[in-house]
Design a protein that fits this description.
Mean pLDDT: 82
Number of domains: 2
Number of helices: 4
Distance between the termini: 148 Å
Low-confidence stretches: none
Helix content: over 70%
Shape: rod-shaped
Length: 139
């Protein structure tokens, strides 16, 4: 009956549904030495858990704060921020100047086109003046 109970507890243990008391029952069963042959593979696992429970960390844990790293980190963050603002502003001004230059070139091209149309009309005016001079000088 005890073997059947241990198998059920082991199944519950592997499904992670056992209580602390049931786990203690399993631990004592596997540590006492009289184990069923088909359950011997679990012996090393429970032996490891019992040994690991008794282990303690003996090294010193340093508790000094690392404030100097935070200081340098904040200095670096400010430097990156200033660098970004300075060159970002320069880049933005450069793009704005390029935009103004392009718009000015477009305006000058429109003016040049309209002046060319006006000069074409002046050619006709020149011919008109010539003919009127011929008419007035011939009379």
């Amino acid at each position: 009956m005890e073997l059947h109970n241990i198998e059920k507890l082991l199944e519950k243990y592997l499904e992670a549904t056992t209580t602390v008391a049931e786990e203690e029952t399993l631990r004592t069963y596997f540590l006492k030495g009289d184990i069923a042959p088909h359950l011997k593979e679990y012996t090393t696992m429970f032996q490891y858990f019992s040994m690991a429970k008794e282990e303690q960390f003996t090294k010193q844990v340093p508790l000094k704060p690392r404030k100097s790293n935070y200081k340098w980190l904040s200095v670096a963050a400010v430097a990156v921020l200033v660098f970004g603002i300075y060159f970002g502003k320069d880049y933005q001004e450069q793009k704005q100047a390029e935009y103004v230059l392009n718009e000015t070139e477009k305006a000058f091209q429109l003016i040049a086109q309209n002046l060319n149309k006006g000069t074409e009309k002046l050619v006709y005016l020149g011919k008109l003046e010539e003919t009127t001079n011929k008419i007035y000088t011939n009379n």
